[in-house]
Every structure is written in C-alpha cells, then in structure tokens.
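Narrative of accomplishments. A recurring question from our advisory board has been how the design workflow behaves on a single, concrete structure rather than in aggregate. To address it, we present the structure tokens for one chain from the evaluation set, followed by the sequence designed for it. No filtering or post-editing was applied between the two.
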C-alpha cells in the first residue's frame, strides 16, 4: 500500500500500487537519490530489459516508492540499501516536485549524496556505473536516459 498525499506531502488516503499506476493520477510520494563520487561523477542505474516502464535505459541512481506508514527518510534509506547496497551515506535534500505521466502522478523528493564506497547493484537493476558530467551532457536527448531522469536533471541542475 502507498500513502496518497496532497502536494505538500500530507497523507490524505491510501491505495495499492496498481491503483496508483492505472491512470488514476492518485498523488503518491517517491524518493530519488543522485549519487556522486568525490570526482564529481554521477552514478546511474541501468533499468533491466524486463521492466514495463523505460526498459534498458539509464536512470537516477536510486528511485522508489514511499510505503504506507513509512516516512520519506526511512523510504530513502530502505531504497538505497535495496538497490545499491549502500548503508552509510549522508543525504542532502535538494527539492520536491510533482511529476505526472499518462499512468501516474508522483510527489518526488529529490536528494543527493557524495559516496566513494563500494556500490553493489541489486538483481532488480541491470547494473550501473559512474558517468562524468560531460558523458551525461553528450548523451542527453539521444534516448539513452529515461525522460524522467533528463527532466529532473534540468529541473535541479545537478551538472
């Protein structure tokens, strides 16, 4: 179950994952973490080919839903541990915004961190790697990255 929220993040209800992703546009919270190393490179995950949304594309290092009964910070720590195996990081909140697609509407809480330790992508990803800012810029608009990542990159001007 996911919490349903208003644009300020106040919980106003609850719904299943399916209800949130079926075009209902129920606003539900998600977390994104942009992971940089001390050289200024940005870690991106590769979405597996079996994903129903944006298969095979490169995306934000960590992205996941906030579960009902969980606060944003708890969800962020859980998702980072599950997706990248990282437990010792210091997140910095950048912003929050509403993202809407034809299937869903999300309240996105965006964080960044600097991390030089080992990254162990989970089986739910098709790996990942650090990209230089120039590599990212050179590949924008070429269909390599998810539209959500490209949109967020412009919104928060990370690189």
């Amino acid at each position: 179950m996911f919490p349903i929220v208003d644009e300020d993040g106040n919980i106003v209800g609850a719904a299943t994952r399916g209800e949130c992703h079926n075009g209902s546009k129920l606003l539900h919270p998600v977390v994104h973490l942009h992971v940089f190393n001390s050289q200024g490179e940005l870690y991106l995950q590769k979405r597996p080919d079996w994903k129903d949304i944006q298969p095979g594309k490169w995306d934000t290092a960590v992205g996941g839903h906030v579960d009902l009964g969980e606060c944003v910070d708890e969800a962020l720590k859980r998702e980072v541990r599950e997706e990248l195996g990282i437990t010792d990081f210091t997140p910095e909140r950048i912003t929050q915004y509403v993202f809407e697609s034809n299937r869903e509407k999300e309240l996105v809480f965006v964080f960044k961190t600097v991390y030089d330790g080992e990254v162990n992508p989970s089986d739910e990803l098709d790996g990942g790697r650090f990209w230089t800012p120039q590599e990212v810029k050179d590949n924008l608009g070429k269909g390599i990255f998810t539209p959500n990542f490209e949109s967020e990159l412009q919104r928060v001007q990370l690189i």
